[in-house]
Design brief:
Rossmann fold; 2 domains; 32% helix; alpha/beta
Length: 311
């Protein structure tokens, strides 16, 4: 277990992390969620001992940070740090050697991972020749090559297409099944909902909600409905019964006002859209995130992102 208690961090006048406490058990995928600038990466950098907290404690299975623990962490930072002129295989082997692997083991594991992630020309191509997505895959491989006990990913899907996002999800599930302790920071709520067993949402340096995904969705039951339709549904967000909503080409997820119901909404749709299914639903993590953090603090891609709706 990674346990962080009452972490504090200031940068000049900015209180980046304000009394954050997290417990990340082994065999679970713990999602650290939050908008840009919320304090996620600062929290992770304190947990990995890149920066020191102003106050608070961090332990790994009850032990304080040490060189031995450092070698047992697989850390994927949000920023890329690859040697652009180096060759692909050389880069991964070098990262493995830094984590204590011998040359032969590092090379064997590197080739296996490179093959699994579908990166071609590993012995001849340079890192700078790779696409953004393939460079991200290379960093993921480097983080996992030494078979770490603690896996800490910060925005791991950055640059990955849907196929490779699914491959990464499979890899992370395998790590969970093997008992690894996994801290997974992301702002992609659909991915967090599918992957994480437990989450904490940070906003403005503080944890504003936490628990298992099911617990969080139950606590924020809300008054959400799904409306499937044909036509132009842009007007749905402005209807009197609607508190706020997200409209997609063929359906809308709407949060109704506390005193409204689906019956209050339907008369506003007659003659304007061809209506398919309508149903009440428990809110998605995306809806909870927007409602908790506030739409002004949410990245535009989260508001516009089309996602698979829970049944």
């Amino acid at each position: 277990m990674i346990a962080a208690h009452h972490l504090q961090k200031r940068f000049a006048s900015v209180h980046a992390v304000d009394d954050v406490s997290l417990e990340v058990p082994g065999g679970e995928i713990f999602g650290l969620l939050g908008p840009n600038g919320a304090g996620k990466s600062t929290t992770i950098r304190m947990i990995t001992n890149i920066i020191r907290p102003d106050a608070g404690t961090i332990t790994y299975d009850g032990e304080p940070f040490s060189d031995a623990i450092r070698q047992s962490i697989g850390y994927l930072p949000e920023e890329r740090g690859l040697y652009q002129k180096a060759r692909i295989l050389e880069t991964v082997v070098y990262m493995g050697r830094l984590k204590g692997l011998d040359e032969r083991t590092a090379r064997s594991r590197a080739l296996g991972w490179i093959d699994r992630f579908g990166i071609e020309g590993s012995t001849s191509r340079r890192v700078e020749e790779l696409s953004k997505g393939n460079q991200q895959k290379l960093q993921i491989i480097a983080a996992l090559l030494h078979e770490p006990r603690y896996v800490i990913f910060d925005e791991a899907t950055s640059g990955l297409d849907p196929v490779n996002q699914e491959l990464l999800r499979t890899v992370v599930e395998e790590l969970r099944a093997s008992g690894r302790t996994i801290l997974y920071s992301t702002h992609q709520m659909e991915q967090a909902e599918r992957l994480c067993t437990r989450i904490a949402l940070i906003n403005r340096g503080r944890v504003v909600l936490e628990g298992t995904v099911d617990e969080v969705r139950r606590r924020h039951g809300g008054n959400s409905v799904i409306v499937e339709f044909a036509g132009d549904g842009a007007f749905l967000k402005g209807l009197p019964p609607v508190r706020w909503g997200t409209v997609y080409p063929n359906y809308a997820e709407l949060e109704l006002r506390a005193d409204a119901s689906l019956d209050d909404l339907l008369p506003h749709l007659v003659g304007r859209l061809r209506i398919g299914r309508t149903r009440s639903m428990r809110p998605t993590l995306n809806a909870i995130f927007i409602d908790t953090v506030g739409r002004a603090n949410v990245p535009a891609e989260m508001l516009d992102e089309q996602k698979e709706v829970a049944a």
